Amino acid sequence: MFEERLLELLVYLAGGWLGFCYGESFLSLKWDSRARAASVWLLAYGAGQMGVSLLLEQLPWMLQSIYGSMASLLAGALLMGALQRLCFAGELSRQVFVLLSFWAGWGILRFAVSPLAHVLFDWWNPLWQYLAEEGLARGLLSADWLLANMQEISRLTLFTVLLVCRLVQLGLFALYLRLIAESFPKPYMLNGQESLFLLTPCLAVLAIDLTLRVMAYSVDNSALMLIYDRAPESLLLLPMVSLLLLGLVVSAVFLFRGLVQFKEEEQKRLLLEKSVADVHRQVRELEDIYGEIRGLRHDLRGHIGNLTAYVKQHLPQEREELEPYLAGMERTVAGLDFADKTGHPITDIILHQARQQAKKRGLHFRADFHYPPGKDFDVYDISVMLNNALENATEACGQVPRGEIEVRSYMRGNLYFLEVVNDFAGELKRREATDLPATTKEDGRHHGLGLANIARCAEKYRGTVDIGTETKEGRQKFRLTVMLYQRSS
């Protein structure tokens, strides 16, 4: 009848729209216009599904009941696969997963919703009988009116029940697709084993769905409604099995996301270890260089002093010519001194390099940093934290005109604090797993490790890292505070 046809078409269009949005969340759109691609998708999908439905109705009833739904599922999958290739671009394994997960969910949900239709009809029949008897007894209805409108009431009841069931099915289906789309790691490239891991649950659900369809129509040529009467427990078991199968697909995606995150964290851990090893090597080299520079500076000052004394005593005539030269040498040697006296040569060098970088970029640099007293802290860890903090600050500050960087340290009892404040532009976005700011660079796997390095070093001293933003004098500031615990006073 017309109402059923209209409802069928609306369901096809709703399913087509969900399929388009679902594919869009995994694949890149080939067309320049999203509206045009969606229109072509919906028209082709709706028309194709209606055409298949009308064609299957021409088959004998026995073939319709047993194989009609299977043929409809297969035809819909082929149609969606063709539209997917037409509208979207992406790796083949991802396209296959989108297709199979979509139809596995849509097919098995039929067995989650059909018991609802059976229950609604069972509730409606006694309710309608009660309403009709009460209406006749109270004179609200006449027997002639009931006989004349019984067919229309039955059609309206059937349409209402089908509408409710389809809305429930579409709602559960939309939730299922959303859970998968939001959980799937989008930029990740699937390999063969990972594709098999994701596709196996979808194929299992499809196989169970087809098996249930054959079984439902093979028992004495009866349909699902009769099976519910013969085995009432199936009214609960079938929806439970259907939802568990959907949960199997969703759980596989959740597990896959966890595996991808673990792999990425493992790669980052290896990069962190390599970075720390490089810093350790550089620190050792810098200590050697610093010792050589300090010795050279001492020797040069002694030589310049001796030359100056010799010129004064033995070369009075050449004194005016040699004194500017010797003064220039003295200034050059003085330039070997670092502006910051932090209490450790390595941190002196790190601050000197940071000042040089800030000067090249036109940034204002202020430092009040002192190496922590005592022997509780490893110079490697302090160097890693200070160097990474200053590198991040210099890079962020370079995007702001006349940017400022301020670094300072101080003790509060047994707590040592390192604080770096810098200007920055943009929005601070944090990673869910670590609560640390996410890198703004495209290659997130190999960048954004500085703060993770700092947090890792702070944990060794039962410390914490606090990151926040503030507005000061009309400028947006990024503040990094590292707290370390000193075991001995």
**Radius of gyration, in angstroms, nearest whole number:** 38 Å
Strand order of the largest sheet: 3-4-5-7-6
Question: How many discrete structural domains?
Answer: 2
| Average pLDDT figure | 80
Please state roughly what percent of the residues sit in beta strands, choosing from under 5%, 5-15%, 15-25%, 25-35%, 35-45% or over 45%: 5-15%
Number of strands: 7
> Helix/strand/pairing class, anyone?
alpha+beta
- Provide the succession of SSEs: HEHHEHHHHHHHHEHEEHEE
Q: Report the span from N to C terminus.
A: 88 Å
Helix content: 55-70%
Low-confidence stretches: 442-447
Separate helix tally: 13
Overview of this structure, please?
The protein has 489 residues and is of the alpha+beta class. It folds into 2 domains: 2-264, no CATH class; 340-489, Heat Shock Protein 90, CATH 3.30.565.10. Helix content is 69%, strand content 10%. It has helices at residues 2-26, 34-56, 61-87, 92-108, 110-138, 143-183, 192-216, 224-230, 234-314, 319-334, 345-360, 379-397, 450-459; strands at 28-29, 88-89, 364-368, 404-412, 415-423, 464-472, 475-485. The strands form 2 sheets. Strands 3-4-5-7-6 form a 5-stranded mixed β-sheet, covered by helices on one side. The chain has a two-stranded antiparallel sheet with strand order 1-2. A hairpin with a 2-residue loop joins strand 6 (464-472) and strand 7 (475-485).
